[in-house]
Amino acid sequence: MLRKINKIILFTAFLSGFFILPCFANAQSLSLVSDQSTCKVGENISVVLSLDTSYKPINVVNGTINFSKEYFDVENIKTGDSILTLWPKRPTVLENGTIIFTGGIPNGFNGSNGNIFSFILKPKKIGEQLVSISNAAIFLNNGFGTKVDGVTLIPLKIKIASAEGQIITPPQPVIDKIKPLPFTPVVSRNTSIAGNKFFVSFSAVDKETGISYYEIREKYVLVPFFGPWLSADWQKSETPYILKLQHWWSKVYVRAYDGAGNFREETALKPLDRQGLIILNILIIIGIIILLAALFIYFKLSRRRRR
To answer: pTM value?
Structure first.
């Protein structure tokens, strides 16, 4: 009887492992990863927020990194090596000791060890601290933006020792003279964005110091006399940017600046819309009328001179 009970227990355990363990194995995860679990006050600790999709392609990730401002300063947030290319909300350090972010990738990402972004922690005080992830959300690249349930969040535990007797070498400044990589701004319109107005979307990558910010300028095309006065000046922006020149042809200039101040400039052409086409036709008709009137007056004056 005892053997029979043991067999039942073993069989139940086998079935539990067969059905339950794959669920954990296939769980998507966000992890805070570092080569250092111990450090001294004043040392730099490089931390990477890493994504494992567990064979499910994703296209949007957002969340919050939590750290103690009493124990750490955060420096040098980098997105240059990120798998994400669109940043509705770039990783930003807030006063309450958090880093918030929202990023995406249009064609999705499927894999492990996906670098979301990295940052430097500089310990200020002896102790043992946990750097954690909260409010995280991952969305599938399935055409519906389905939110993934049960995302595993893996924190980073750091032990900080005294810096007594330690010679701390100040970090060397990063010398970056390389422009961001080429990118392609795209002008389009969508009924779900700003009432079907034209907008430009863009995303650049810089492998050295990461993209710091973007600037945009719009310039009228085929308006040689009034173009300079009607065109917009350079201004900082994020993607997508709703264009101010909606009706006429315009050329959109986009500059991507990296952390060292280098920039790459790319352009896109905004087409004429229906209202602009109506205006163009009116201008053509007015031009033809003026031309015919001028010709009529010219021939009339010529006849008078002949007489």
So the answer is: 0.60
